[in-house]
Design goal:
The chain is an alpha+beta fold. The chain has helices at residues 9-27, 33-45, 47-62, 66-84, 100-121, 263-266, 281-289, 317-328; strands at 128-132, 139-142, 148-151, 156-161, 166-178, 187-191, 194-198, 202-207, 211-218, 220-224, 238-242, 245-250, 259-260, 273-280, 295-298, 307-313, 330-336, 339-344. Strand 6 (187-191) and strand 7 (194-198) form a beta hairpin.
Length: 348
């Protein structure tokens, strides 16, 4: 199956509008505990939600004149309610009954919020492109900024490039990024609950179901785990990785220490190879399963820890099985087109 690609500008626009709504509602200080739970659920629905909200919040924080106007309007509302002895919401008088000076703070808020919303929505949101590879398929994306992304088997990601930012969301699988550096347009990859920011040129990301691995081939990247409640960046869980360094983080937000890794082994798949160095047979079969539609199943549990060494062509399954039979004294039985069973060889 070929990589699929589609434009979704309207979807991006809808998310941007939702981000604005949440930003304005939370900044109004009227949000209750139920609202905040809903906000956190919305952020968890899609990593793009978090990215759009952070940008909306940043723009809002830059509009300094709005905050004192908002506070002044709230103060007047409280005073008015106390004066009339009512619990009803403050309903400002009609403009024709109120002088300009009385309406200035309210109009200031309206104009500022409208300007903020208009600027954010109509700033030509970048289209979002979706890509996916099937099992056994690899594909190279050449982005318009000069960067390349090599997608490994069974991977899915989205790309969104604009004049202000470059953002990729890796939903699943593995991808090798070679980034054309641009200080004016930061390159950020979202993988699960983490942000990977490019400060160099080449890095590898593998998104597993429960954790994400980040390996740097050249240059420097930052791995950031945003706060789980506010979803704002730079919470202290920040790791900078240089060339030859590797780290991983879990879906629970735990970030590992920095380790060295073998680049040749990590990039073997880009040469259609799988390399194993004393890897347990169970892990080897799981890795092969990422590239093949057939299931490889062990009949005996005591085979799981047998060590496997060697380089194998991804597209040569039979050679791989033959090597296992010779090195580990096991036998492969092909049950049907979708199942291969491995068991110990019977002694004659």
């Amino acid at each position: 199956m070929r990589v699929t690609e589609k434009q979704s500008g309207s979807s991006s626009r809808s998310i941007r509008e939702q981000a604005i709504d949440w930003c304005l509602h939370l900044e109004s200080q009227e949000a209750n505990a139920h609202d905040r739970l809903g906000f956190e659920a919305w952020l968890r629905e899609d990593p793009v939600h978090r990215q759009e909200y952070e940008e909306a919040a940043k723009v809002w924080s830059d509009i300094d004149q709005v905050k004192p106007l908002w506070a002044e309007a709230r103060r007047r509302a409280v005073q008015h309610a106390a004066a009339v002895g009512s619990d009803q919401p403050f309903d400002p008088p009609r403009p024709r009954l109120l002088g300009w000076h009385g309406w200035a703070p309210v109009m200031g808020i309206v104009l500022a919020v409208c300007a903020f919303t208009f600027w954010w929505i109509w700033e030509a949101p970048a289209p979002m492109q979706h890509y996916r590879t099937a099992k056994g398929e690899q594909h190279t994306l050449r982005l318009e900024d000069g960067s390349t992304v090599v997608m490994n088997t069974d991977s899915a990601l989205t790309v969104q490039l604009s004049k202000h930012k470059r953002m990729v969301t890796l939903q699943q699988g593995e991808a090798l990024f070679t980034v054309s550096h641009d200080e004016q347009r930061p390159f950020t990859v979202i993988a699960k609950n983490g942000l990977i920011r490019d400060i160099g040129t080449q890095f590898l990301i593998h998104a597993f179901p429960e954790h994400v691995e980040v390996s740097v081939l050249e240059g420097v990247v930052e791995v950031d785990i945003p706060n789980a409640k506010t979803f704002t960046s730079r919470t202290g869980k920040l790791q900078r990785l240089a060339q030859g360094e590797y780290a991983e983080y879990t879906s629970a937000g735990q970030l590992s220490s920095v380790h060295a890794f073998d680049a040749e082994t990590a990039l073997a798949w880009t040469r259609q190879l799988l390399v194993f160095n004393n890897a347990p047979l169970e892990e080897v079969l799981k890795e092969w399963g990422r590239y093949r539609t057939e299931e490889l199943r062990l009949l005996s549990s005591n085979l799981r820890t047998l060590p496997v060494n060697g380089k194998f062509r991804i597209d040569h399954m039979e050679s791989f099985l033959q090597a296992l039979e010779e090195a580990l004294a096991i036998k492969a039985h092909r049950v049907n087109a979708n199942l291969i069973i491995l068991d110990r060889q019977l002694r004659s």
